[in-house]
Amino acid sequence: MKLSVIGAGYVGLVTAACLADVGHQVCVIDIDKTKVRALQQGHIPIFEPGLAAIVQRNAEKGRLHFTSDMVEAINFASTLFIAVGTPPEEDGSADLQHVLAVANAIATHMHGHKIVVTKSTVPVGTADQVRSVIQEKLSLREGSFSVDVVANPEFLKEGAAVADFMRPDRIIVGTDDDACRMLMREIYAPFNRQHDRMMFMDTRSAELTKYAANAMLATKISFMNEMANLAEHLGADIEQVRQGIGADPRIGYHFIYPGCGFGGSCFPKDLNALVNIANKVGYRADILQSVIHVNQCQKLRLFEKIQTYFSEGLEGKTFAVWGLSFKPKTDDMREAPSISLMSAIWAAGGRVRAYDPEAMDAAHGLFGHRDDFSLASSPEEALLGADALVVCTEWHVFRAPDFELIKAQLSSSVIFDGRNLYDPERLKFYGLQYYGIGRGN
User: Cβ(321)–Cβ(388) under 8 Å?
Assistant: First the structure.
């Protein structure tokens, strides 16, 4: 099938590459000409395991091509996936200007029936808005063109997006049209062979499903962080508690790891957008607001522990920070806990020497040159001359470090572990002081 994907960001690029990899002919359009030229030359603007090889393979075979010409993309296929950004407004609501601009462009340049699929994470009712914008524009044009709008939210985890797309838990499709159901079944047939993962519903339910899924996962994280904070006051070990409750199949082990808060492009943005949606219909979403509040506070828990330990102040002290991205296997630093931590350290007069396997360029882009910030070429280099080690991201390379080297390098022999990677008893053996999250300290 011929398909066009509008937007070459994270969602659009993964969607396009994976659709091409199963044999579809896919055209990707982005208004950023520099990005398009880079993609045409085989350069991937994001780090996502496995993605570069898929893009290169399908570009070489002619199943995937990139353009900055909107008219070309609209006329290439009758099925158009909208995968542009929906950044947050000041009030937390999702900014739909890019989505609606695409809808307007489609209505302006389409010649024949189109099926428009909203892949971006959008507020409930967006499919109706897109349909309305297109139909209003079409009413001013000559010819009797028609359009169907389908909601098809993505459920991609950064760091595992290719696997999530290729082997989905579910494929949510919002449409009331039988022809659209058949089309979407055909598009996703290669990903749906083992058992039927397709779930059809109305567009508003499909849109809410995406928000509800992210809100539930974020709630589990904030709940565990709250339990971790309570465990510290009670002298309990949250890691033992986690294993105890995770054994209950009704709870499970996923998303119950306490830590220094969640970040990324999805959870914080989608929670705020969902609260805004609730406010607009006169509903007070107390649980969601609490999840947001707990996470905001949790991002400063490591700094609070650091400040308590160095009670004389942080002026002139250097902190080795391991992990800058909001999670492993991505270079994404959006809303990352490391940003809150480092900003607080700088405000208190401290210095940071940081290392991350993939997010160094992102960090340089965010902070540029600062006298109180430097990037190390390895985890070991970050330790040189540091007063303490702070772990912000649970990259595999940090899981089994040389603790004797850490003790030798750190002037204060103390580790602040924001992801509970290490065993407190083992660190005592090496003569290291240890402060985790919810570990009774």
Answer: no
